[in-house]
User: Which sequence fits this backbone?
């Protein structure tokens, strides 16, 4: 938090009111991990010379 907002450790402890810090923490973005049954299982594909060339051609086409 200090690095993100540019605050010193002293300011965090002595210059900032606790209710304000609580609101900052509550408003911070969060992330919820998906439950195992919600995960999408993707089929694994074996890399071959042909599909490697296809992937490279696709990536190179993005630049142009």
Assistant:
């Amino acid at each position: 938090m200090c690095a993100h907002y540019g605050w010193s450790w002293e300011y965090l402890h002595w210059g900032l009111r606790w209710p304000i810090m609580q609101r900052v923490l509550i408003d911070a973005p969060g992330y919820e991990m998906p439950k195992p049954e919600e995960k999408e299982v993707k089929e694994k594909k074996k890399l071959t010379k042909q599909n490697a060339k296809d992937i490279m051609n696709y990536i190179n086409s993005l630049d142009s």
